[in-house]
Structure formats: C-alpha cells, structure tokens
Amino acid sequence: MTERAAAAKRPSLLSRLKVDKYLLLIVSMVVLASFLPARGNAATDFGWATKVGIGLVFFLHGARLSREAVIGGLTHWRLHLVVLAATYGLFPLLCLGLAALPAWITPPALAGGIVFLGCLPSTIQSSIGFTVIARGNVAAAVAAASASNLLGIILTPLLVGLLLHARGAFSAASAEAIVLQLLAPFIAGQVLRRWLGGWAAAHARLMQLIDRGSILLVVYTAFSSAVVAGVWSQLGALDLARLLVICGVLLAAVLAATFFTARALKFATADEIAIVFCGSKKSLASGVPMAGVLFPAATAGLALLPLMLFHQIQLMACAAIAQRYANRADTEPASG
Question: What is the end-to-end Cα distance of the chain in Å, rounded?
Fold first, then answer.
C-alpha cells in the first residue's frame, strides 16, 4: 500500500518539474523587452539595478550554500570527478565544436552563447530533485551539484575567457566585474552564513522571490540592450529551430556519455543516477547573472538564448528519465 501511494505521488511531482513556470516568466521578460525595451536614462537605471541584482543573487547563494554538504560529499571522489569532467570538460568541448560548425548549421550570432552554455555549472535544485524521484544517491547529488556551483564561480569565467577571448567577450573589465559582482558577494554570504543561514532557511520563500526577481531583472535589461542593438534583425525562426536541434543533440550526447561512463566504471545504480542528472545539467540561475557580467550589454541577450532553450529541454527529458529509473526493480543495495 505504501509503495502504491508513493508511486501515485510521483507523477504530480514530475509534472511540476516538467513544466517550468519560471521559465515562462523569463520568456515574458524577453517579450516585454522586445516591445518595450529600456532606452536612454531608463537603460542606465536598469543597468545599475542589474549590477545590484547580480551581486544580491550571489550573496544569497553564498549565504545558503552549505559548506558541510560540499565537504562531506568529497569522500565520494570518483563520482565527483566524473560529474566535474562532464560539466567542465565534455560540455565545453562539445559546445566549442557545435559553435564551430558551418553557418548553415550553427547561426553565427548564437555561437558565443552556445560556448557560454557549455562553461556553466550544473543545476542544484533540479539535479537533486530528479535524483530523489529516481531513487538515486541523494547525498552524492547534493555534494556534486553544490561543488559544481562553488567551482563554477571561478571555472566558468576562466573557461569563457579562454574559449571566447578571440571574440572579445572577456577583458580586464570583465575580470574586475567578476571579482566585484560575483566573488565578493559570494564570499560575503559565506562569511555571514553563520548569522544569516538560519534566517534564510526560515524565510525560504522570500529568498526565492528575491533571487528569481533579480534574475528576471537581469533578463529584461539584457534583452532590452539586445533589442536596441537589433537582435531580432539578426535572428529568424529558422535560426531558433536550428538552435532547438543543436540543444537537443547536445543534451542527448551528454546524457549518453554520463550514462555509459557510469556503467563502464561500474558505479552502483544509485550513483549512476546522481552522475547522469548532475553531469547533464546547466544552471539557468547561475547563467543569467553571469551573462550579465561576462558579456557586453548588447550581446548578453543573445548569449542567454541557448541556455534558456537548453534549460527547458533538459527538464522535460530528465523528467522522463527519472520516471524510468523510479520504476526499476531494486537489484542492489542503495549506495551511501
């Protein structure tokens, strides 16, 4: 009876994960910016508000991210190495290859955004959520996703600078912005976590509203600048259709790579689940504010398009995969 009750609850949870309502809000910011972009003094004001919002997002990340979860999970070093290799090794290489394809396959205006997508950290919430649904190693997923995001504050800007330096997407000004807008707020959040951690946990809803509201502001500001610069004259429906195919192929390749690598290295099924879900994701929550720092205002909107599309595809695909894992028969003990 308990098994049936648990199984009955899973579809509703999956349906919540499959339909990303927050992404609809982000898309609405793109639509709003397309018809009513911020211009002149309003654009300047939004630019300053965006800088404050980005700093606030990373301050909250620092205040909420548990150091204990990261440190405690590092004992499972083989699993974490596979996840990090997929996130910061395989993904950037695949995206760099996709960005270098002929213009009739990869729209040149989106190439930088595809490379940026490949350099981002994994998600935390959905990686853990899918691992829970699939009955995987949740503790390892928490540690792997947290470590990925912690390292991403350093590795993502470094990879973007290395891979996109020739395109002028990274400069000394970008490095300074990373320190002031990403690292400093994050470190401040970690330092104050001792005092703010409990308060943040008790006001999780408020923290989520501030976090997500800041990201919506960044998206509107970035796409306002892009629209003023003529983004929609550079892209058409065919370009977006090609981007959809590219994102689908990229996700399928990484899912297959993480799955077969976990099998080849003889990980337990619970560990395999954590590897597949943590190693195949890219974080919208981290990517949006990072794009606002790493790219010029006129190109930040274009840089975000591949990430927004990939984010929705990954949720839909991983929801189906999590259900298949959840329905499996247990043939081995759970991993620790």
Answer: 26
